[in-house]
Specification:
Layout: H1 2-21, H2 32-47, E1 53-55, H3 59-71, E2 80-82, E3 88-90, E4 93-94, H4 101-106, H5 112-127, E5 139-143, H6 149-160, E6 171-174, E7 177-181, H7 199-202, E8 210-211, E9 222-223, H8 225-233, H9 246-262
Helix pairs in contact: 1-2, 3-8, 5-6
């Protein structure tokens, strides 16, 4: 299947260049060939995934989550464990946002609530066509529980009929797709993943600039989430306090274990002699 994946990706890359040379943009509606490729990618990477998949809103979230899981691995054996060399190995796949053919076809090049909302609708439409076995592992959308969550909640309602408030530990959307919002703590009305860091780490100065959690910030005096993830969190991951991530990791584990429990084959009936 990996060879087929590579071949289809190569063909898609040629199609992109041909259409760019003809003056067509990259973000047009998918052609029939691209729709088939999209269906294949959804089946391979998500529907029949070999481990639970977590889709965050962006690559900075992946950095935070990776190191939080690693630091708290002993408490979350559904998320990480030790390999045969005694090294911590994460048991879930964090979807990596890349400017690749796969990401373009799936509509997941940049992340964000709009991309994830579109993914929910596409996932429901495409998985309804699958007849082959799958769904062994869940796909979990993790999103910030803030003003931008409205699009994702609407997408969940359209796909599942469920009304989402953001207070749920997780929501089953459709098939093996679930959604987890960042927990609302201490009576807060909104939350985002950066809220789970201590104030001290968010107060670190980088190149004379302070950290801004906003998507738009003053670049002359502030740095954003990418710098925070790669120049503050990642290099200091061994000393960063990730205790604040426990409520979030608890909810991810609940979504994963609930899916496993719901999809276990029933035990064979026993007959008394």
């Amino acid at each position: 299947m990996n060879q087929l994946h590579g071949m289809l990706g190569f063909i898609d890359g040629i199609d992109i260049r041909n259409k760019q040379n003809a003056g067509e943009g990259r973000d047009r509606n998918l052609s029939k060939k691209e729709q088939i490729y999209q269906r294949f990618l959804i089946f391979k990477n998500f529907f029949s995934a070999e481990a639970p998949v977590i889709l965050c809103e962006g690559e900075t979230d992946n950095v935070y989550l990776t190191h939080a899981i690693r630091r708290l691995a002993a408490e979350y054996q559904d998320l990480a464990g030790l390999n045969d060399k005694g090294k911590i190995q994460i048991k879930v796949r964090l979807y990596k946002y890349r400017h690749s053919s796969t990401a373009r076809i799936l509509g997941l090049r940049d992340g964000g609530s709009s991309s994830l909302n579109n993914f929910i609708a596409t996932y429901k439409k495409e998985t309804a066509k699958f007849k082959a076995p799958g769904q062994k592992h869940p796909v979990v959308i993790l999103y910030d529980n803030d003003s931008g969550a409205k699009k994702i909640r609407n997408g969940i309602k359209q796909a599942s009929g469920a009304t989402v408030t953001g207070n749920e530990p997780f929501v089953h959307v459709v098939s093996n797709l679930y959604a987890v919002a960042t927990p609302l703590l201490n009576g807060a009305q909104e939350s985002k993943i950066e809220d789970f860091f201590e104030a001290a780490i968010k107060a670190v100065i980088v190149d004379g600039k302070s950290f801004s959690e906003e998507n738009e910030f003053e670049a002359a005096t502030q740095y954003g989430k990418k710098v925070f993830a790669h120049k503050v969190v990642r290099p200091n991951a061994d000393t960063v306090n990730f205790d604040g991530f426990r409520p979030l990791l608890n909810n991810l584990v609940l979504a994963i274990t609930s899916h496993v429990a719901a999809n276990q084959a029933p035990a064979a009936a026993t007959v008394n002699p």
